[in-house]
């Protein structure tokens, strides 16, 4: 029997949920939980070489790439060295899940155009405050991400006897 009180979603919302479900931070959430983020997702367009944020900026938002590419870079001696380039269906700025965090890299648009969903930290923290299960699921995914980054750093360090390419820490597992 169908529950008449169960929320129904538009086809646009369902497509957004399917899109978000493929992103590590959101993969454990069901549609009802994902819906909590929808009112706080702002689509913003960027152009080639536009900086989304700089290292050491406050981590005020999480970004999800709807389309386009973004380069994540570390600045060394005044020059940007790429860590990785990410594309549609990937998130960055994930330390926005942590109150008071600062950016650890600089993000720059690497395609002619990029459309990014921006989810302000204040809204993420409001969702967490109202939904302990959502927070637990997302923080579990966040911990898995950071564990994989750390694992990659150690693999890179061991393989190069202490001298390694830091970009290896951001390579995706095959």
Low-confidence stretches: none
CATH topology-level name? Jelly Rolls
- Per CATH, the superfamily is Jelly Rolls
Query: Overall 3D geometry?
Result: globular
Count of structural domains: 1
Element-by-element helix/strand order: HHEEEEEEEEHH
Structural class: alpha+beta
Helix content, binned percent: 25-40%
**Top CATH class:** Mainly Beta
Cα-atom Rg, whole angstroms? Answer: 17 Å
Helix count from the secondary structure assignment:
4
Distance between the termini: 43 Å
State mean pLDDT (0 to 100 scale).
90
Strand order of the largest sheet: 1-8-3-6
Strand proportion, as a percent range, falls in: 25-35%
Please report the total strand number as a whole number: 8
- What is the makeup of the main sheet? 4 strands, antiparallel
CATH architecture: Sandwich
List keywords for this structure.
globular, four-stranded antiparallel β-sheet, 174 residues, alpha+beta, Jelly Rolls
């Amino acid at each position: 029997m169908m529950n008449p009180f169960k929320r129904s979603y538009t086809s646009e919302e369902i497509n957004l949920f399917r899109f978000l479900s493929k992103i590590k931070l959101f993969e454990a959430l069901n549609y009802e939980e994902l819906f909590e983020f929808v009112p706080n997702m702002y689509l913003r367009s960027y152009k080639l070489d536009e900086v989304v944020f700089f290292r050491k900026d406050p981590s005020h938002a999480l970004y999800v790439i709807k389309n386009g590419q973004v380069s994540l870079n570390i600045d060394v001696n005044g020059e940007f060295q790429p860590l990785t380039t990410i594309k549609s269906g990937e998130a960055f700025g994930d330390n926005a899940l942590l109150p008071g965090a600062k950016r650890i890299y600089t993000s720059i648009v690497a395609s002619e155009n990029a459309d990014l969903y921006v989810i302000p930290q204040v809204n993420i923290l409001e969702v967490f405050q109202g939904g302990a299960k959502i927070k637990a699921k997302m923080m579990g995914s966040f911990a898995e991400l950071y564990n994989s980054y750390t694992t990659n750093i150690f693999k890179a360090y061991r393989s190069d006897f202490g001298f390694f390419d830091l970009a290896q820490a951001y390579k995706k597992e095959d």
